[in-house]
Write a structure and sequence with these properties.
The chain has 261 residues and is an alpha/beta fold. It has helices spanning 20-25, 30-49, 66-80, 96-109, 127-138, 169-172, 181-192, 208-223, 234-243; strands at residues 4-11, 55-61, 86-90, 114-118, 145-150, 156-162, 195-198, 246-249, 257-260.
């Protein structure tokens, strides 16, 4: 049996540590942004649990405040009756690439055959996209496949690999810290002879424009009859509603929208 896992790569939601660009580009405080990150993490756990993965793993940082992370996860498990086993790995290393590679290495050493890594800032991502990544990995020669979910500005929101992927490549190729991520991964695939698969582009939540898009998505999902292409982010939507924020049009300018409160 092929062991499939979803590995959530995240920081523990803490004011001043998470989503700092969002607090700098919106009228939300660091505390409000931290609480938003917490709700997005909850939705991400639900998304992962609704996929074909046999387990969920969380690669977290920093080491301190782990009990807070556990409480967040346990609250989601209890409220939604989730039975998928969850394992935790501390991110190790001095750079983003090293930390990313360390949790992927831990996941592979745990015996997983296929690993799909996602962040915790895409609360509307459908589980079907994760399943699509798994399907690409098991098609043809899975030992030579890599799956990427492209995000805005050349970034990525998902990485799918098999256990034969060398976690040291994240550091050796500087896949996250030396330029446009998609281009870095393309270079890796060319040099290592890997098959490159791309999923549907999605917008992760980093800056004000992203939050504007998220609020629009949520309003549409509330009345949409069929939501196969998106997950309704219950926790995130409820928190945004509690903040009383809305999309504010800038008069006289096309598509120049901001967050109002």
């Amino acid at each position: 049996m092929i062991k499939k896992t979803v590995l959530i790569f995240t920081k523990i939601p803490t004011p001043g540590l998470v989503k700092t660009r969002l607090s700098k580009t919106t009228l939300l405080s660091e505390i409000e942004v931290s609480l938003l990150a917490e709700e997005m993490l909850k939705d991400t756990i639900i998304i992962a649990s609704h996929s074909e993965a046999s387990s969920i793993e969380i690669g977290y940082f920093p080491k301190d405040n782990f009990q807070k992370l556990q409480k967040i996860v346990e609250s989601v498990q209890e409220a939604n009756d989730l039975n998928v086993p969850i394992t935790y790995y501390i991110q190790k290393g001095s750079s983003f690439d090293e930390r990313f590679g360390s949790v992927v290495q831990a996941s592979i050493e745990c015996g997983n055959d296929l690993v799909v890594v996602i962040g915790a800032d895409l609360p509307y991502m459908p589980p079907a996209l994760i399943n699509s990544a798994f399907n690409h990995l098991i098609s043809e020669d899975s030992t030579k496949n890599i799956v990427i979910g492209p995000a805005g500005e050349g970034g990525i929101y998902l990485v799918g690999i098999s256990r034969n992927f060398d976690p040291n490549w994240f550091r050796e190729y500087n896949l996250f810290t030396s330029g446009i991520e998609i281009i870095r991964y393309s270079k890796l695939c060319k040099q290592e002879g890997l098959e490159f698969h791309m999923l549907t582009p999605l917008i992760d939540i980093d800056i004000e424009d992203d939050l504007v898009s998220l609020i629009g998505f949520i309003e549409g999902l509330k009345i949409a009859e069929k939501n196969e292409n998106f997950h309704y982010p219950y926790y995130t939507a409820r928190y945004l509603e509690s903040l009383g924020i809305f999309i504010r049009e800038i008069e006289g300018k096309t598509r120049n929208r901001r967050i109002g409160k």
